[in-house]
């Protein structure tokens, strides 16, 4: 089975490519890319897709999604989450372990992989828990879980409050060569807060989560990464202080990587004045100064990945008073449009850098580059996405494939329409 995609702007940051090109796919793999058809190997009789001048890039790689299977498939299943992924241009997702039961066993990992294969949409990489039952007490069997297919370890949803447990987990990452993904939150400091602690929370009389709740744990874990030599990946960072500490850690050569989410660079805590739980997530929306720091960190290489933290919740978890509503927002379908609107069109970073943060850089963080993901180098799996960066999309219920609709971007009109998504040379969307 062969396929030729022509008439596209081909952007592949891993190969420093950004220009007119053609992509030839044979047997699910990239056979060749070229600037004109004459330079391609013999390809008579192949199926031809005319890209119509749209942008073609490697499929996006999301290091952080919550598909609620097993346990809460009314919010999302592996199949519905995978459909939301490919609709958003993501061809690989890494799924957090805070399912019910949590993914601390080979049985759950294998069940997840079986369901994902049955869905047959995107590539699905399970993340195992750091601690058994996610209780934060004993280490999960990380070695066995890695052998079963887990690509990273995280108790995300909860922080690892025990410094000694985090220390041991980081020690294990050295010989397992997988990262520990940290949800950084000092629970004493966060208390019962449900939005960012600052001028806005004070004026609303709402309980806040201070920036220090995140930063104190980032500081602790950078110290532990230094002393263990382990790989620490910091999930959904949101504050100015976190950005500064990661920048310093990298400058000192530590194995520290991090991701930021589109909602954290798109929205500030002022949104909470609407008292709408679609603006409630963990970590909370921060201040304008934090957003500025995140933008600078995206531009200067401090941030390794844009990740969605796609966290589906049902209306019954959300349509309640703010203090008791669930934390979390969906994000797979709005990630590219928000990145284009707020990072590329506002000239914070180039289109190529934005694509890099959605493809090659995240692939490297979880070593998915070793499987050829995040790039369209010859021989790599033909996972790619075709999108029109100028066509507008309307964020309404019909646009969202997820089973849940807990997005703060309802009603927004944004640029970036996905025209097609291919995984292993097979069209799975569009
Ligand atoms: N981000 C969130 O607000 N919620 C996530 C958990 C998490 O990412 O910490 C969830 O599982 O709902
Ligand atoms: Zn988290
Ligand atoms: Zn999460």
Outline the fold blueprint.
Elements: E1 2-12, E2 17-26, E3 29-34, E4 47-50, E5 55-58, E6 60-65, H1 78-87, E7 90-95, H2 106-119, E8 123-128, H3 142-148, E9 152-153, H4 163-176, E10 180-182, H5 187-190, E11 195-196, H6 199-204, E12 208-209, H7 211-228, E13 232-234, H8 240-251, E14 256-260, H9 262-266, H10 288-299, E15 305-306, H11 315-318, H12 335-344, H13 351-358, H14 360-365, E16 384-394, E17 413-423, E18 426-429
Parallel strand pairs: 1-4, 1-5, 6-7, 7-8, 8-9, 10-13, 11-12, 13-14, 14-15
Antiparallel strand pairs: 1-2, 2-3, 5-16, 16-17, 17-18
N-carbamoyl-L-aspartate binds next to loops.
Description:
- The protein is an alpha/beta fold.
- It folds into 2 domains: 104 residues, Urease, subunit C, domain 1; 313 residues, Alpha-Beta Barrel (TIM Barrel).
- The chain has 14 helices and 18 strands.
- Strands 1, 2, 3, 4, 5, 16, 17 and 18 form an 8-stranded mixed sheet that branches. A 4-stranded parallel sheet has the order 6-7-8-9.
- α3 links the parallel β8 and β9.
- α4 crosses α7.
- It is globular, with a radius of gyration of 21 Å.
- This is Dihydroorotase.
- Catalyzes the reversible cyclization of carbamoyl aspartate to dihydroorotate.
- It catalyses: (S)-dihydroorotate + H2O = N-carbamoyl-L-aspartate + H(+).
């Amino acid at each position: 089975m062969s396929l030729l995609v022509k008439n596209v702007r081909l952007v592949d940051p891993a190969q420093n490519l950004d220009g007119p090109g053609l992509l030839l796919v044979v047997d699910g793999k990239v056979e060749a890319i070229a600037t004109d058809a004459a330079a391609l190997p013999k390809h008579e009789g192949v199926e031809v897709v005319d890209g119509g001048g749209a942008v073609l890039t490697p499929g996006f790689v999301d290091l952080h999604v919550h598909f609620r299977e097993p346990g809460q498939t009314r919010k999302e299943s592996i199949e519905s989450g995978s459909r939301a992924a490919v609709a958003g241009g993501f061809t690989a997702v890494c799924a957090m372990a805070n399912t019910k039961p949590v993914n601390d066993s080979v049985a759950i990992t294998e069940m997840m992989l079986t369901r994902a294969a049955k869905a047959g949409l995107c590539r699905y990489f399970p993340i195992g828990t750091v601690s058994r039952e996610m209780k934060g007490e004993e280490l999960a069997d990380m070695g066995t879980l890695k052998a079963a297919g887990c690509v990273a370890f995280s108790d995300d949803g909860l922080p690892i409050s025990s410094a000694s447990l985090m220390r041991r987990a980081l020690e294990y990452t050295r010989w397992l060569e997988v990262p520990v993904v940290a949800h950084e939150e000092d629970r004493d400091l966060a208390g019962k807060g449900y939005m960012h602690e600052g001028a806005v929370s004070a004026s609303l009389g709402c309980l806040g989560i201070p920036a220090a709740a995140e930063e104190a744990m980032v500081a602790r874990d950078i110290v532990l990464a230094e002393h263990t030599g382990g790989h620490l990946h910091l999930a959904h960072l949101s504050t100015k202080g976190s950005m500064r500490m990661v920048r310093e850690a990298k400058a000192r050569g530590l194995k520290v990587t991090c991701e930021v989410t589109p909602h954290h660079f798109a929205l500030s805590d002022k949104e909470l004045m609407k008292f709408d739980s679609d603006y409630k997530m963990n970590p909370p929306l921060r201040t304008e100064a934090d957003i500025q720091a995140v933008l600078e960190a995206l531009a200067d290489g401090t941030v390794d990945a844009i990740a969605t933290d796609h966290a589906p919740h049902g209306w019954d978890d959300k349509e309640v008073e703010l203090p008791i509503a669930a934390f979390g927002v969906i994000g797979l379908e709005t990630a590219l449009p928000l990145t284009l609107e707020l990072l590329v069109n506002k000239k914070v970073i180039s289109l190529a850098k934005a694509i890099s943060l959605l493809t090659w850089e995240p692939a490297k963080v979880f070593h998915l580059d070793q499987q050829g993901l995040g790039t369209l180098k010859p021989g790599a799996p033909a996972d790619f996405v075709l999108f029109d960066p100028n066509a507008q999309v309307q964020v309404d219920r019909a646009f969202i494939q997820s089973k849940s609709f807990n997005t703060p971007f309802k009603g927004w009109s944004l640029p970036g329409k996905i025209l097609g998504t291919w995984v292993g040379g097979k069209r799975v969307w569009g």
